[in-house]
Amino acid sequence: MKVLKLSLILFLSLSSFTYCLGPLIKPISLYYFLANLFEPEAQNQESIFGQIDPSFGDGGYKIFDIPGVSPDIAESLVLKGDKILQGGYCNNPPGSIFCLVQYDISGNIDSSFGSGGYVTFDIPGSTYEYNTSLALQGDKIIQSGECYSGSSQFCLVRYKADGSLDTSFNAPLGYRIYDFPTSSYDSATALAIQTNGYILQGGICQIGSNYNFCLTRYNPNGDGIDFSFIPNIIPEDFDYAFALALQGNKILQSGFCTNDFLLNSKFCVMRYNSDGSIDNGFGSDGYVLYDIPFSNYDDANSLILQSDGKIIQGGTCYIFTNKFCIVRYNADGSVDSTFGTNGYMFFDIPLPLNEQARAIALQTNGKILQGGTCDISGTYQFCIVRYNVDGSIDSTFGTNGYFIYQVPGTTSNTLGRSIVIQSDGKILLGGTCDNKFCIVRIQ
Questions:
Q1: The domain 11-442: what is its CATH number?
Q2: Is the pLDDT of residue 426 over 50?
Q3: Model's pTM, two decimal places?
Q4: Which of 94, 118, 179, 240 is most buried per CB count within 10 Å?
């Protein structure tokens, strides 16, 4: 039973680690996503210098308070043609429900979507729903997360393009719940759609006292489970998966792994074959563990692939304070020593007391964007760092390589959670501002 919800982000212990407490503690802002990594990008993005775009929304930003529910916790962004979808969950006592908002490309609420621009959905029989990711399946929208009804389970909802429930998905329900038979706690944290329409949902499953990566694949229409798997091959006892990516017909799943519950965690990546079996040709018998030098714990939460097959994994590292950090691997899972400092890079943004990275995106010129939240004297603000292709900081972006922005009128609760890049190269950073959905656009 979920007996406590936390609305305060504890930067020192890193937000992802709250998953270590399983069903006992669930923060009021779960903010994992992956469905924002594969959007169309502009061919020339050298002109994006890291300044707020005043033509977007209300002078560079947009805040939306979903009627009748509060707080509203936004976690994921995806582009749908010339529309912007933002998903999350909303508190609706006695529990929480999925919620979804659609904006036009200028940052205005699209009133033709759902009910005045938004949709809420409460999965029958579930007390709590926590959305972690969004993905498009053709013209359909899939929202994925964790549902709690006596125990935590994977769940999915599919909407039509106009925001109405698609009852042809797992007909006639429009939603799907999956409980791993051998797991006492299932938390879905990532979503990916394969080219054949099959739906991959990954996350964390508890076996005894240990936590493991787990993965399931659904038929395109949601009426059957193609496979489900809890590999349990990583030698650490606590393995927390937060991202999925497709590498040709292979499936990558990543997160952080540790034997010490909260301390001494490492970045970790696992690769599956197309049938869900472990790909033993990747890294060491199917997985990679990477301990970032000088860091006490490494909280990996995002993953993206370059066009040459190299893998970039991002997150937060604790080196006296929390810092943005990234690692690059070759396609076979070996560390790419040509990147940054022998394969890794961390960046300490000036002024913030702590930084928490949550998302990665690639520009078409190969530069890497990493976004999240920065704590400046107790005020949480949106922030982005840009790296060059070789992992060095791109000093031409923002202020010496970084961008920090406090949304006007907000106080301390601004949490950056997801990045997408528009076809014109402009950058959208989405998250939560004072318990409302919000987006800023950067040019």
A1: 2.130.10.10
A2: yes
A3: 0.88
A4: 240
